[in-house]
Input
Amino acid sequence: MGHDANVKSRKSEQRQRLMMIGSLIAISGAFLLVVSLLSPSTLPVKPAPAAVGIADKGAADATKPLRRGEAKISGEAAVVANAKTAKKVESVGSGGEMKIVDDERPQPQSSPKSELEAAASRAFLEARVREIKKTGVIMEADEEALKMTKKLQDATREVLKLRYGDYGSRNYRVELLLEFQPSIPDFAENGKDGSIIIEMAPISLLPCSVYNFMEIARTWKSGAFHRNAGHVLQALARSDVTESMPFQEYDETYPHKKGTVGYAGRPSGPEFYVSIEDNSKNHGPGSQQERNPYEADSIIGTVVKGMEDGTVARVHKMPGREFLPNKNDWVLIRTMRILVPGDGPDGYVEFSKSP
Output
């Protein structure tokens, strides 16, 4: 009996130890579970109510660069990227409400357009103007047409300055290098070479006409004076510019006086002419048609070299009158050179590339 009692006693002690170890393990597991539930990484976070103009992505990563319309939250403040002005977003009250207040810090200006971007914008506006003109409205009196042509003019000035340089009040020039053929009466005396320099009209007045001619000159392929009329000398122009002007650009302060250069036809161009007499009435507003009292030939510029030294007068000696059927009688335009203000002998240098 004594031996059995000892055995039972040892077994009882083992059971008690096992029960204590089991209790300790259970308590430890429960403690770890409670700790994990109370960890900040798993505690549920009540999202702050969204504020006007705030994107959820902005609050997710305080180091991520802002994109337009997004907010980056840091503590109780955030900055909203906006196209025109930045705003500061502050949380107020215990409920985490947000409000937007002005941020008076200087904001960075948008970067200037590249030449390619400006040209793309201009091309889009030109297409819109052409669409309006196709409807047959009087462009010079229609409100929508006037609005769009003004936008096109502004965009064209921007492209001109980016592509050819901004010289303030000084104008671009284009030189026409001519070749007279043996059919000209004074060929033996004066030879085959000649040149005419045209100063472009101010781009403040006629930017589209100037741009069009500058592009004709820049992409020149071939051409010739082929019409010898009593009032104009008209020329063919072969270049990458194959369409006429998008609208009849004209300014009454720059009329068709003697020596001016204009685009031929209605719609105008790409053929052009030199006025060898005052054509203010012949080619000015309301001329050549009765429907539109405002429409005129578009003007390009004025001859500043070649009128007084006899080159233009020599072109006028082409055999025959009006359109000349024999190409051997034409005065060829071998090339065109764009000239921009510079330190050359006459204050101009040949244009080589975009600034």
User: Anything to note?
Assistant: Residues 1-7, 40-109 have pLDDT under 50 and may be disordered. Helices lie at 2-37, 56-60, 115-134, 143-164, 187-190, 207-218, 311-315. The longest helix spans residues 2-37.
